Amino acid sequence: MGTTDKYDAIIAGAGHNGLTTACYLQKAGLKTLVVEKNDYVGGAAVSRELHKGWTYSNCSYVCSLLRQEIVRDLELPRFGLQVIPYEGNVTLAPGGEYFGAYGNHDAYRREMERFSVKDADAYDRFSRIIMRQCRFIRPFLLRTAPDPTSLKPRDLGELLFMIKRMWDLGRREIDETLRFWTMSIGDMLDEHFETDLIKAGTAGSGIIGTGLGVYSPGTAYVLLHHYMGDVDGSVGAWGFARGGMGAITRALAAAFTEAGGEIRCGSGVAEIRVSGGRATGVLLDNGDSFQAPVVASNMDVKRTMLKHVGREHLPAAFAKAVENFKIRGSSGKINIALDRLPTSDTLPDNGKLFCGDYSCTESLRHLEKAYDEWKDGYWSSQPYFDMLIPSKIDPTMAPPGKHMMTVFTQYAPYDLNVDGVRSPDNWNEETRAAFAKSIFDRLECVMPDIRDCVVHAEVRTPLDIEREVGLTEGNIFQGELTFDQLLFNRPVPGYAQYDTPVDGLYIVGSSSHPGGGVMAAPGANAAREILRRKGLGRRMPKLASRWEE
Amino acid sequence: MTRPNTPDTLVSVKIGMIDTPFQPMLEPLSESQAWYSWAGYKSATSFRNVDLEYFAIRNQATVFDISPMCKYRINGPDALRVMDRLVVRDMKKVRAGRVAYVMWCDEDGMVIDDGTAFRFAEDEYVLFCQERTYKWLCEIAWGFDVTVQDWQSALCGLAVQGPCAFSVLKDAGFASIEDMKPFDLRQVEPGLWISRTGYTGDLGYEIVTFPDHAPPLWHRLREAGQRWGLIPIGYEALDIARIEAGFLAPGRDFQPSHKVSRLHRGRTPFELGFGWMVDLSTGHFNGRRALLEHAAKGPRYNLVRLDIEGDAPAGNAYVYAGKSFAGHVRSAAWSPTFKRNIALADLKAPWGKSRKKGLWAEIYVEQEGVWQKRNARTRVVEGPFMNIPRARMTPPQAY
C-alpha cells in the first residue's frame, strides 16, 4: 500500500546531476519530485560524519569540473557552497625521491630542473597543448551533443559549431586533436618527457576512475577530462568544497526546495512505470507510487534501463548497446580520521607546501603493472593512490589540530578474483581488510607513521560504492570516458540527447554527455532538452558564455 | 612634534618607504616580496599568492597590518559635540565602547573622506581613516574644549579576519570577546583594544595597540593561528573581499574632495549610496546646508553595485544605457566566493536608481596578444553582494 501523487516530473536519485535537473525543471514551473534511496541527498557528492568530529567526503572528494555558470545561475553560494582551491601537489616515490608540483610557475620549473632541464622546457609546451585542447572542448560541456545522422536544424547547427571549431584549429591541429583524443597518456608523456617520476606523477590524471592502464588508448583524453575544469577561471585548478563535497548537493537541494520542489529520501525507485511506450511514473521500494509524464533518472544508464525498466519496453538493439556500455569498477577508497599529520621524512618541512594531492608511484611501468593485476581480477599490489588532507586548509573537516585524509586508490576490481573465480561476492570482511592492508602498506612506504595516526578508517571497495551510491560496478564516472562513449556516442549512439526509447524517460546523470566528475553539466543540459521537448525551452536560462575563452 | 634642524640633529627625512611596528615580523614571511607604499609605509601587496590569501579570508583566518591608517584622537569634554559637528551621522547614538562607520563633508556637501570612529570613552574618540585630515579636524574643533592629536605613529593595529578569526583570538587569550557584537569595542588588556570590525564583510576583528606591544601581540597570534590556518595577507586579496562586501575605497570609488584639483569631482553621501547615514534632523554639522539642497534636488550620480555578465572583471569599463553613456565602473572583481562578476559603478542619475534596464558594460579582454571586446549585460544589485550569516553571529562560530 502506498500513496499516489501526481507531478510534472520525477527525478530518480538525488545526486548532483539529478538535483541540477530538478532545480531547472522546478524553476521552469514544473512540479518536480526528487526521490532518493538513501536517507540523505547527495549521491556520490556527500559529506558524512562517520566518526564523531570528522567529516568525510567519502566518495568524490575534490571539485574543479563543477560548472561555474550553473553555480552562479542557481546562486549556490547563497545556500552555503564555497569552493576553496588548493595548490601544491606532490608525487612520492617509495625510494625516497619526490617531485613537487608547485603553484608558482618559477618554482615548478626549478623543481623540474632538479631532474631534467629538458623536461622543464618540455613542460611549457606540454601545458600549451593541453590548454589548447581544453579551450577546444570546454564550450561543448554546456551544449547538447549533435546527432550526426539528423537533419534537424538544431542538430545541423550544433554539428556546424563543432566543425567550425575543428576548422579553426587548422589542418595540423586537427590531426593532433584526433591523435590526442585516441592516444594513451603513456605514449603522450613519453613524447614529451624523459624523467620517469615526472611522467608517472603526471599520468595519474589519465587513469583515475577508468578501467584503463597508462598505455591504453584513450587515456590522454581522460587526463584532459581532469584538466578541463577550473576554479574561478583558472583552468586545470582543483579545489575542495568547504565542509566536504556534500556542500554542493546540500546547496542544490536547498535551491530546489526554495523554488518549491519536493525531495523524498529513504526509498529508492523499484520500477519506472511505462505504458504505451511512455514513462508514466515510478514505483518506490516502499510501495509508494508517483505519477509524472517526465521521469529523469540520475542513475547510470545501465542501472536505469536494465534494472528498473521492463525489458519488453526496450528495442533489442538498444538494450544490447546498454548492456555493452563500459562501466567497470576500478577504484577503491579509504577515508581516514587522523590524530595528527603523518610524517614524510623525505619531504621538506613535512610537506607543508603541499596542500593538494599526494600520489605514490615511481614510473609508468609500475602503473601499467598495477593495471595488469586488475585485469586479472586482483587489486594492485603496488597501487596508485591520490591522497589528500583537506583539513590542511578546510577547518571544518576535523577538530582543530586533527586531520582528515582521503585516499583514492587504484586499481581495485569489482569482480574480485579468489582462487580463479571472479565475482563481486568475493568482497567480504576478510578481503576488504586485506585490501586495506595493501593500501596502508603502500602508504607506509612514504609515511612511516601513518598507522599510528589513524583514529578511524572507512574502507570502500567498488562493491561498497555500488551498493551505497548505486554506481554500477562502482565506476565513478557512470561509464568509461573513452572516445567510443563520448559526445554523440554517450551513453549509446542515437540516444545522446538525454532521451531513451521510452518517451518521457531521460538519463540525466554522468552516463550522458559530457560525462563524469562533479560537473552538473549533464543535469543542466538534460533539463534544457526536457524543457525544449515540452515546448518550454525559453524557460531554461542560457548558461553558455557568449564569448570565446 | 617638531624636529628643528640643528647641527646635532642634522639628518634628512627617510627617503622611500618606512616600516610599521609589525613590519620586522612580517617581512621574513613574504615569499613574493611584493610591497607597495600605503601612506609611505611599506605594505604587502601579497605574501605568496593572492588567490590563496583571498580564500584564507573566506575560509580560515588572516592577518593584515592596518598600522598605516591615519589615526586621530579627539579627547575632552566637547568630544561628542566635535564629532557631531564633523560627521554627517548622529553620533549621540553611538555609545562608548562602540564603533561607527562615518563620512565627513566639506561646505559643499562633498565627501572629504570616510572612516571609522572608535568611541573609546564618553569623551574620547579615535578616528581611523585613509586621508590625512589633521588640519581639518583642528579647524572643526576650534573653540571647543577638546584636544585633537595626530596618532598616526602612536598606535598600530592588525585586522584579524575570516571565519576562524574568533577561534584564533580565543586561543591567543582573548576569549572574553566572545559576547562582542559587530561594531563593539573593548579594552581587553592594558593598552590593547579589540573591535569587531573589518574591511572584509566576514567575521573579523581589529586589534589596536601601542607600538611596543606589537611584537608580543604578533607572536601570540602566530602561535594561536597555527591550528586555524592563520596567514598574513596583502592588499590585493583584501581588495577582492572589500568589493564583495561593498566597502568603498577612497580615491577609487570616490574622490576625496580635498584631494582633487578639478572641479565637480566630488560626491555627496547620497550619491555614494549612504543617504541612510545622513541625519539632517539633528542640527548643524559640516556640509548640512548644502546636503539639504542636494536632498531636495536629488542625486546627480548614483554609485551602484553591478552584477555583470561573463567572468572578465570590468575594471574601468564604460557603462552604457542603450546607446548613451551612463558612467564608469570604479572597482571591479570576479567574486571567487559568490561566483559573480561584480563591480561598483558611478552612474549619472537617474541611471542606477529609477532607471535600471538596458545597462551594459564595455569590457576589453586581452587574450594572448589580441583584444576581445565584450558588451556585457549588467544588472543593478540592491543590497550587498554577500550575505554570510557567520559574520554577524554572536557568539561567533568556531569556523
UniProtKB/TrEMBL annotation, chain A:
Annotated InterPro entries: Amino_oxidase, FAD/NAD-bd_sf
Signal peptide segment: none
Single GO term (MF): oxidoreductase activity
All copies of domain Amine oxidase, residue ranges: 18-429
Role according to the record: Probable oxidoreductase that may play a role as regulator of mitochondrial function.
Subunit structure: Interacts with COX5B; this interaction may contribute to localize PYROXD2 to the inner face of the inner mitochondrial membrane.
Protein name per UniProt: Pyridine nucleotide-disulfide oxidoreductase domain-containing protein 2
Record organism: Ruegeria marina
TrEMBL record, chain B:
NAD among keywords: no
Residue ranges constituting the GCVT N-terminal domain according to the UniProt record: 37-281
Aminomethyltransferase C-terminal domain: residues covered: 303-369
Gene Ontology CC terms, in alphabetical order: cytosol
GO terms, molecular function: methyltransferase activity
Keywords: Methyltransferase, Transferase
Pfam families, per database record: GCV_T, GCV_T_C
Residues reported in the UniProt entry to bind substrate: 206
InterPro entries named among the record's database cross-references: GcvT/YgfZ/DmdA, GcvT/YgfZ_C, GcvT_C, GCVT_N, TrmE/GcvT-like
Statement: the UniProt record of this protein carries the keyword Zinc: no
GO biological process: one example: methylation
Protein name, as recorded: Aminomethyltransferase
Lineage: Bacteria, Pseudomonadati, Pseudomonadota, Alphaproteobacteria, Rhodobacterales
